[in-house]
Amino acid sequence: MTMVEKIMRRDIVAARGDDSIVKAWRSMVEQGLSGVPVVDANGQLIGIVTEGDLVRRLIPRRTPRWWDLMFRDREALARDYRKAVGMTVADVMTSAPASIEPDASVGAAAALMNAHDISLLPVVEASVLVGVVTRAAVINEAAWGSEPREQAVSDDQLVREMHERMEQEPWLSGRSIHARADHGILELQGLVDSQAERAGVVAMARAIPGCTRVEDHVLVRAEVLGRS
User: What is the pLDDT of residues 52-62, one digit of tens each?
Assistant: First the structure.
């Protein structure tokens, strides 16, 4: 299992809260990053300023409507105002951002990036910034980035694995899919409720190690009924 420390960038120049927004933007460009971590005087991570934060500043600020005052608290409105007009990194940054430790797995980093919809993940040790992980680095490390090796798998194993995987997925509308295999070729037959389900089942079959090809004979119920 690959650890974050293997793929992280350590040569990072962090921003400070009192830096100007322009300085932070120049730092992003010079370092080729989509954001810059923000640290305090002790090097501890306190925030991150990203391209998204800067893009939001380009959107003309709308004066709050009366319903904003009714359904949003004034503290949130004050934070939005600060982000819209502030001139320092502290004004626009995201405080207490998601972070990860060097000995965490790359898979854990990918999960955090996906959960928070971020492309840059600070790496910390005892709250002190030691680097960052980029989305590109995580993708480059992915196992599917290299050519898959041929695996000798019996046809019975392919069919068994296909049915086990289908049983684990709650989005399948019933279990009416039948699978059979012949020399590594998985043939699928049956009915599903939508094209999305059909595509998902075919993708499931292709992802099984040892499957060399998928013959798709799955039908969508609505289309079958429409023909009759």
Answer: 999 888 877 77
